[in-house]
């Protein structure tokens, strides 16, 4: 059961052998200044066959330039930021940090992002599940009933994947306040909504970890850069157990430049949100679509009479969507990403043709 009040110290949750772990000390850890000759890291001083600038040198292991820019953009301190190879790395490290294999558990609220379960399984960590309700919202009492002393992490996805909705802030706050363990709020799609990020409240909640990514709104899925925001204590432990050079030099270079383009980000977000509203409106008028779920993300979940059949039909017309019919609460549902206006036109045309064919039959 979740207690009425929680006094949280990350040190009491860390796997004991990690408390005294001495991390690998890289050459860039031991010397961070400027020199004319670097002979400390066994790099190839003749240069790089990949070209570019300094690609023969190891990258900054702590991505300081990016963290400075993110600090201003997100309103958090640099020491509250962990940068990973996608947010999937942060998920993996958090489980590794506090969950003993074959002993501890994580708590998931399906339908939700699949990597929480995959990472738990990789580390032989148990999984408890409390399905979201019919509105795809968490049920506090049922979650409270599931927690035991073995439950170390609660994963919340908001906006949720694959449903697209924001989890009700009142329930999320109650869970953060009263859950005895880490509460991880995954905000991969937060840029597509006006709802404030939980990262603005890190100083209130020492057990809170907020995940975000540059893969969605920023359009950098191929560069693989995700973020975890948390207390400096939690971040220091993540830095302690991560690989020394987990973000490559090319990604750091391109991401740093992209973070200066907030005006272009705003323009892209505006187009995506407008297209989302257009699709939702048309979907609601198509007899083929039985239900359109509210979305604060860059996709829309819809329910249709036969998801498998419609998925196959769209494939024939060159349109790939995500069939989520096997997910809890998502029977006969398709998850449709917001494309370009031209791509969305092709999708709508295909749906209209399919709908007409079914009505004739």
TrEMBL record:
Recorded coiled-coil stretches: none
Presence of the UniProt keyword Transferase in the record: yes
Cofactor: pyridoxal 5'-phosphate
Residue numbers bearing the N6-(pyridoxal phosphate)lysine modification: 216
Residues of the Aminotransferase class I/classII large domain: 50-351
Broad class of enzyme this protein falls into: transferase
Enzyme Commission identifier(s): 2.6.1.9
Keywords associated with the record: Amino-acid biosynthesis, Aminotransferase, Histidine biosynthesis, Pyridoxal phosphate, Transferase
Family, similarity comment: Belongs to the class-II pyridoxal-phosphate-dependent aminotransferase family. Histidinol-phosphate aminotransferase subfamily.
Name of the featured protein: Histidinol-phosphate aminotransferase
Gene name as annotated: hisC
